[in-house]
Amino acid sequence: MTVRLSAKEIEDALLKLDGWVTVDGREAIQKSFKFANFNQAFAFMTRVALKAEKMDHHPEWFNVYNRLEVTLATHDVNGLSSKDVELATFMNKIAG
Amino acid sequence: MTVRLSAKEIEDALLKLDGWVTVDGREAIQKSFKFANFNQAFAFMTRVALKAEKMDHHPEWFNVYNRLEVTLATHDVNGLSSKDVELATFMNKIAG
Asked: Enzyme group, top EC level (chains A, B) (predicted)?
């Protein structure tokens, strides 16, 4: 079962998630990634897509050329869950 | 050399581009695509990414699960060019 994180849990999680911030007016987190070019950006997106599909937990994302804006939230709990933390952690790891 | 399309050329092009519309306050075109699921949406995005990279002409796009919002414009001409028409035509073709 997916459980909604408390404000304290979100705060603690963000301390370990470099670059991720909360979204104004919505219980979600976001991060802007920048790559060398589109090729690198889309390669990153592809790795995230495979992970997301495996988790059955998908990002909201906007890409233009080398820039990628990602928002994560868990609709089932109308907020954030450990799935968002897991996906954000994965993105940070592979963005290296 | 990339040439900026005239208003008449844009109008004519849109007649053949099902679902594409102009963007308010900006010389660009956009379309919203809907797929069965994330897998199908990202498969489509991957085909478009390969085409875009080959053309060296990239979309602005927002995806969440099975939905994809695409905006096309040509920065070099500060408007629309034949590259946008070509990429939009390609997307319509493979979206089937």
From this structure: lyase
Q: Which residues in chain B (37-96) have CB-CB distances under 8 A to chain A?
A: 38-39, 42, 45-46, 49, 52-53, 58-65
Q: Are strands B21-23 and A67-72 parallel, antiparallel or unpaired?
A: unpaired
- Sketch out chain B's domains with CATH numbers: 7-95 (3.30.1360.20)
Could you tell me the CA-to-CA distances from B49 to A35, A37, A54, B70, B81 in Å, in that order? 15, 12, 22, 12, 18
pLDDT for A96 beyond 90: no
pLDDT tens-digit series, residues A15-30: 999 999 999 999 999 9
CA of residue A91 relative to chain centroid, distance:
7
Q: Which residues of B touch A52 (CB under 8 A)?
A: 38
Identify which of B27, B24, B5, B7 has the alpha carbon closest to the alpha carbon of residue B85: B5
Residues of B in contact with A49 (CB under 8 A): 38, 42
